[in-house]
Amino acid sequence: MANEPADEIAELKRRIEAIEKLLKIETSPAPGPSPDRQETDSVRDRVLNVALSPQAGAGKSFRAKRDIESYIGQRWLPVIGIVAIIFGVSFFLRYTFQTNLVGPAGRVSLGAVGGVVLIGLGGFWRSKYRNYSWVLSGGGIGLLYLSIFAAFSYYQLVSRETALIFMVAVTLLCAILSLLQDAQALAGMAVLGGFLTPFLLSTGMDRHVELFAYVTLLNAGILLVVSVRKWRALSLAGLSGTIVTFSVWYIFYFSPTAALPAELFLTLFFVEYLLATILGGVLPGKPATKIDLALLTVNAASFFGWSYAVLRADHHAVLGPLAALLSALYFAFAYQSFKKSWSPSLSLFFGGIGVVFVTLVFPIELSGDWVTVAWAVEAVVLTYTGVRLRSHELRVAALICLAVTVLHLALLDSEVHDLLAYTLILNQRFFSYLVTIVSAVLISRLYTDRSGEGKSERSTEESAVPTFLGILWNLLLLLAILSLEASAYFARSIAEAGLNASEPASTHKAAYDTLVHERNTSLSVLWAGYAIVLLAIGTLRKDKRARIGGLVLFALTLAKVFLVDMANLPSSYRFVSFMVVGMFLLAGSYLYYRSQSRIS
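Given the sequence above, the corresponding structure tokens read:
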């Protein structure tokens, strides 16, 4: 066992020498060990000895263990200690309350003195033990908040207004300490204490003007600190506190009479945190971080979301212009960011939020099918802009917009609500489908004709977009013009005749069945006809995708004929369905034979 390291070293030496001979590093043995060779051997031996030493690798593990130990000792122990002290003071106050050992004023005074002492100790050790001093100062701030809350809530020693003044003073003290000590953790505690104050001093009455004025001032203080220290996370914490505070008020106290004051303060909150995003570090030459982008997104979403909740009942007419105004604002910021060479991600987010607000204008101001039309046009505009500016992100936004348009079209705009007033082709649903189809065709053309870009600028995913869009607009054409319009035509005929499927066998039932059979037969014929059109176009234009689409549609038509028509249609209608589909199939085969050289 004792010779194992030496044996391993000898084996490694033999392997290294074999590698050297293989690589012809040493072609012949030297007559004597040169100084360079001796030095090389010495270094090699030292490396091998260290590699095989039992202590090798232990240093890193030892340092890692020591780092963990130091982290626990320096960070966790004081935090847990301060928390334990705060709990101890709470239990002491409770104990003295139960036993009347110390009067109410004495209990509050003891807590306040303890807080001041901890803050003083934190300042004393600031230069020597920085993190430790932060913990002590934070614990002192917590004791001051607790003492003021106890004086107001438990003992009624001070009025609500006095307690508010004291808590605001403590919050300001905490903010000043954070700036003096360059301690973001203390600033975070000031934010937490500031937003807890209204909850701690709540009397259960709705005083929204006072509440929101206080939050506005608190946010202004956060904005000031952020502009000085560039603590971006502090802005996100402040915005989160603002959202929680407003949400609680809305749930428990909102009434329509408070809508306009609430909207005024929402606007102030929005402006404050928009400025915090800019002043907190998003300036020329300073790249945006994930916190900046999150703040930008959450601020815009929360502002418009709560504005919609507050204004939709009695002031719905304001929401559309508000969305348009926000869109213009964010587009202006995007332009400014791009012009001044700010962070590229910031320009993208400003523009993206502007696009979202433009998209929201349509469902707010328009209704029904017109929303689909507006979104389809927007998708084309975004694609055109993305191609001209060579912006991959804008093109992706356009595809998302088109996808939402198709979903809205399929789920909300495909039903005919008044069959008796329905007109074949000349109806709003057909127009919505037609605009969406044209939009998909135009977007596909824009992708195909991107002559200004080289192939290296086009991603692999984007190369498949024209094919996907071709499938999409053909499906919409098949669904809208062939299937939906034909079905609606026969449904209107059934409605005009006053027929329904539940009537017993009679003349009316026979007429109803006749119309249903005609509808099913017509669909088979139309599908087969569209398939042969696709084959013809694919043959003439040498478009393989069109020919494959025609073959797929023929397969679907055959499945319908054999599975649906054969089971449900009478013999006369089966004859028509099978004969017409069969003739179209033969015509398609003829096209393949006639155009074999063209296809090849």
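Residues 26-30, 54-66 have pLDDT under 50 and may be disordered. Try to locate this feature in the token string yourself.
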